[in-house]
Amino acid sequence: MKRILLLFLLFIGCKQEEEKINTPRGSEFTKGFTVYESISGDRKWFLKADSAITEKDRIRIYGVHLKFLDREDIRSVLTSDSGFVIEKTGDLIAYGNVEVLTKDSVKLFTDSLSWDNRKEKILVQGVFHYTGKDEEFDGERLESDPELKHIVIKKRVEGKGSIEE
């Protein structure tokens, strides 16, 4: 009886694993995905993902780890559970436990955000939490550079600390 139960559990476990990586027709699954953006030889960002599914015009990514660069110096690091990269533009949409950590230990937390590659801006349409050196606040709708130095809050903000205007 134990043997049948073990075989049944193994069968279900294998079936569930197959369903996890089931890719749509015309797409390709990749484990250990890496891509970067450079302009005139200077790298702007470097993206690593645990896995990716390449689709027609976008790449679905899982286990996202994106480094924003200034030449070879790391400006900040974005991590998230998953996201999409739009191949044509280099834009990124990150979902699930999104965190941006700068080299100055400033942190931004949200459920989802977008990276506008042309404008080099982080965009948050929903709520976020920001933790800086001397300030901590929550807000809604944000636009910022990758280093979280030039932030525009578009809807509401509440918290403690001082913010330079």
Q: What portion of residues belong to β-strands? A: over 45%
Number of domains: 1
The CATH topology turns out to be lipopolysaccharide transport protein A fold
Number of helices: 1
User: What is the rounded Rg?
Assistant: 19 Å
Mean pLDDT: 81
Structural class: mainly beta
Report how far the terminal alpha carbons are from each other: 71 Å
Order of helices and strands: HEEEEEEEEE
Q: How are the strands of the biggest sheet laid out side by side? A: 1-2-3-4-5-6-7-8-9
CATH class: Mainly Beta
Q: How many DSSP-defined strands?
A: 9
Categorize the overall geometry.
globular
* Biggest sheet statistics: 9 strands, antiparallel
The CATH superfamily is: Lipopolysaccharide (LPS) transport protein A like domain
What's the CATH architecture? Sandwich
As residue ranges, the low-confidence spans are 1-20
Considering DSSP H and I runs of 4 or more, what fraction of the residues is helical? Answer: 10-25%
